[in-house]
Structure prediction request, 592 residues.
Amino acid sequence: MKLESLEGQRAALDASEVSSVELVESALVRAEGAGADLGAIVGLRAEAALAAAAGSDARRRAGELRSPLEGAPVVLKDNMVQKGEPTTCASRILESFVSPYDGAMAERLEAAGAIILGRANMDEFAMGSTTENSTFGPARNPWDTSRTTGGSSGGSAVAVSAGITGFSLGSDTGGSIRQPASFCGVVGMKPTYGRVSRWGLVAFASSLDQIGPFTHSAREAAWVLEAIAGHDPRDSTSLPEPAPALESALTGDVKGLRIGLPREYFVDQGAEPGVVEAVRGAVSELESAGAKVVEVALPHTPYVVSTYYLVATAEASSNLARFDGVRYGRRAENVKDLDEMYRRSRSEGFGREVKRRILLGTYVLSAGYFDAYYRKAQQVRTLVRGDFDRAFEACDVIVGPTYPEVAFPIGARMDDPVSLYLGDIYTVSANLAGLPGISVPCGQHQGMPVGMQILGRPLDEATLLRVADAFQRRTDHHEHRPPGSP
Amino acid sequence: MLALCAMSRITREDVERTADLARLSLSKDEIEAMTHELGQILDHVEQLQALDTEGIEPTAHAIPLATPLRPDRASPGIDPDLAVANAPASDGHAFVVPKVIDGEEG
Prediction:
């Protein structure tokens, strides 16, 4: 079993073949080498991580394992806070911010015995699909360093893909976990909205944001989700349900399971042929394992991207109003009054994509446009939810491509926001409807990984992971590694 | 609605007014570029107007929850020293900002 995967690390730790300190030492070396070359890692806490690893090794010797994550290194997307550590959201405006408190993810991971190694690159404030909108510079795809990692959680995807850590956390507002997972050839999961606490996650669009794991396998994703899910009274949108038992659901059995294939994802608004072919191959594999395929309709698919960008930017414009140079973050110098301080601090601190989205969100919420844009989008959001309610009467999961194409060259879409936004057509619906979704590597096209997206009913992560695990038991796409892997 | 039927493209003046609402100062070049890009985006989202949403309830949250309540008991907040630790300017436990009100100091 190889040490770059969480499962491999767990087995080696259990067999006393390696210590947590050794895992952290080699992860640090890898993070400073490949992690820096690929623009994946933006901050390391070497000393604290080594101390935590020594603590984990002591627990292991005493037979006090906290979870399957005990002793395993992990990186957090740089929008989740940890006490005493910087959190930048890859933005100039937060370049010197140090968190005064632990976010829920830092607490949960520590309680699970995992070792937080550092912070992963991202699009500024999670706004983007390429991890190019970062004050640290772009992240690079390990499969082809001239191509984008996807985003916005690109650094977290690379950490797992390039074998820096066995798992990582990202956040997904419109596909920001699933799409980079697809581009980098790893598993990425967005749980049901409210499943994982957002306490200590810097808000982008509060009704859409959800934290989730990157791993190589569905089984590992189940371990991570069991550790991070569950009610948190500090997040008022946190679901009251306890963390679900997930590993026990991974039976490998999909006999009689109904897989819904939306015509819209394969034909009407279909992906490029090489991507469709890989996903159809994966569906055939599940069929041969006993699953049944049914066609379902998601008729509002052509409208989901518009709906998403109206809702998300409106919420972002409100959330990012807090960055005003008063209590934390960058403050412009030599200002003559408070108003100028607000304006210059924000204008100097935010990058272009963030400004564009704040402007769009402010515009659609402004007097005279609210009903035509924002309210309209909220109504269409209801219609999109209705599509999924009806589809899930006929099927148990919905399968399609995660993204219409494979990873494209860095810089290729920088000046064409609309065409970049349109690529989010298969991922944003899960955020609008609150559904769990997972991207699983299912083949290659042009030498680059292709992801299959599986969407489930709200709260039904167990079925989602069972299907993904059953697929991975029968195939080896998740075992393919990019060039230069350890 | 009237503004949308005839034309969807946003004007420079709209962008300037919106930037003012958002407390952003944009350069001439930025205003030019944003007018163009926001125009493209608004042209695209115009497609929603074709959908009949008469009588459809808006969705604000996909998974509606009742507003959670907690017991009305005091619990520790953040340490005031830590609360001001990230402030660009502070005085004791206060955030310092440029003078807000004109006139003689009292």
User: Anything to note?
Assistant: The mean pLDDT of chain A is 97. Residues 6-257+395-479 of chain A form a domain with the Amidase signature (AS) enzymes fold (CATH 3.90.1300.10).
